[in-house]
Specification:
alpha+beta; Cathepsin B, Chain A; 6 strands
Length: about 190
């Protein structure tokens, strides 16, 4: 487990970060289309609850910014997002935390993100990607396999949707989560019925 990373340039300097043609292709992916329009976090619910609300909406469930029973203005670990989501997903869906141990394992999960039987929320260290900030949750809209890039539906409107290489996303998730010495990772929602 890596708890800190060497300083890397912000992904904003990468030409694919918000490249218009790639973003348009990403929005056309089968699961990404289900997220439009994307709900942004607000003063009543920050990234974890808002990400889950977007996942629920992509499943056809009406949801406000905070679908949880507890307040939406609280930092949440990956496991908290997964556990609390398990109580509110529609019948036939389950959710669990997945902590890929390699870029290859991350890539395998991202490949599933284009299948309508799956949804993912990434929990990553924003500082590892942008050079500043803290932990954050946002849905994964899909994966552009030929380019090996993930489509992150950032619920912080100041960032908007963006693209990141699988390797950089893995590095940002392979950082310490504040919950029990574990790494960050993915909340994986899977249709089982």
């Amino acid at each position: 487990m890596r708890h800190s990373l060497p300083a890397l340039p912000s992904i904003k300097s990468n030409p694919v970060y918000q490249r218009r043609d790639l973003i348009e292709r990403a929005w056309a992916l089968p699961v990404a289309k289900l997220y439009a329009p994307l709900q942004s976090q607000s003063w009543t619910a920050i990234c974890g609850p808002t990400s889950v609300a977007n996942v629920l909406r992509s499943m056809g469930v009406r949801a406000g910014n905070n679908p949880f029973k507890r307040p939406g203005m609280r930092a949440m670990s990956l496991d908290q997002v997964s556990l609390e989501s398990a109580d509110i997903v529609p019948s036939g869906w389950k959710v669990k935390s997945v902590r890929p141990k390699s870029v290859e394992e991350t890539r395998a999960q991202l490949q599933l993100s284009n299948d309508s039987n799956y949804r993912f929320i990434s929990n990553f260290a924003r500082t590892s990607l942008f050079g500043g900030g803290s932990g954050h949750h946002s849905p994964i809209g899909g994966y552009l396999e030929d380019e090996d890039i993930a489509f992150v539906l950032d619920v912080n409107a100041g960032y908007g949707p963006w693209l990141v290489t699988t390797e950089r996303l893995f590095d940002a998730m392979n950082t310490g989560d504040w919950g029990e010495g574990l790494t960050r990772g993915l909340a994986r929602f899977e249709r089982v019925a």
